[in-house]
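Researcher: We're teaching a course module on how sequence relates to structure. For the next exercise, students receive a sequence and then see the predicted structure as tokens, so they can try to spot secondary structure elements on their own. Here is the exercise chain.
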Amino acid sequence: MTERVELYFLPPSHYCVSVERMLAFKGIRFKTIYAPYNDRQELLRRTGQDYVPTLIWNGKAVTWQAIPGFLDQVRPEPPLLPPGQEGLARSLENWGHQVLEERVWRAVVTQMPKSFKNAGERWIFEEMQTRARGPWHILQARRPEFVRDLQEYFGLVEEMVRDREWILGTPSLADFGIYGGLSPWLTVGEKIPARYPSLRSWVGRVRAF
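Model: And here is the predicted structure for the students to work with:
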């Protein structure tokens, strides 16, 4: 039986990017459905909630927190949670989304509007970010500071992948969570600085699935 798999996706979302890479790693073919920042009516009708990423697997909705475990259940090989390292993989994934991503986001937030498809999405995004983070012109003015602060975190991931292909030895949830945390930097068209060669190579490997 061929599964019918759909992923509600928004490019700026680090969680969405992470799940998209997990599906590619598992070799699962899927249809991507763009979930506009300002209009989740279709997703609400289908699932009763509006958060992305949402995976629809043969009509069953799987929300973002449950997706890694669900994928390992329906496609055990290759595993997202390496045997004996499950807790470490989950902890590193959490760090990628909760700590690393915040440093990345501050550095790119004022560039992110160009990743949306229409002016309505861009306007609402800027309004919501201004309410959460302060005046837009201040965020723009502080961007060089935020980019400088980010270098420490690039360096931490550089150390994680130096002299190894994958963070835990084999591809795992740790790689996809940390890649997701970095992804807003890549979404706006930035490149990993050349002084982090191991990180640059690792990003290329994650992208290659």
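Model: If you want an answer key for the exercise: The chain has a mean pLDDT of 95. The two ends are 23 Å apart (CA to CA).
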